[in-house]
Sequence to fold (113 residues):
Amino acid sequence: MNAQSRTVIVMYVSNRNTLNSCVMFIRSIRRFGESMQDTPVLVVHDPSSKIDLSPLILPNVDTCPMNIRPEHRNFFYSRKVHACATAEIFLTGQTETLLYFDTEMLSLSSFKQ
Fold:
């Protein structure tokens, strides 16, 4: 991340569908997120999926590769857990709060009280 922020949104993409959903969610946050619209976003990805990440070249969005051992790939939610752990390591000392969201969402207003 380029600048320190108290909060960073974290998402994980694994294929073209989750990538497209992620981009739509980021754009909805930027448009409708009110107090959260400028929140930095970190998108974690598995390099072995070999997806084109160029749609994520957006303001205040960064990407980070995730390493996950093959024997852990098939455990339920293991990729989400590894994505969060990767984000924590990547952002050590740069933020106070990580908000993990699945990509299949849209923001219609601020999600911060």
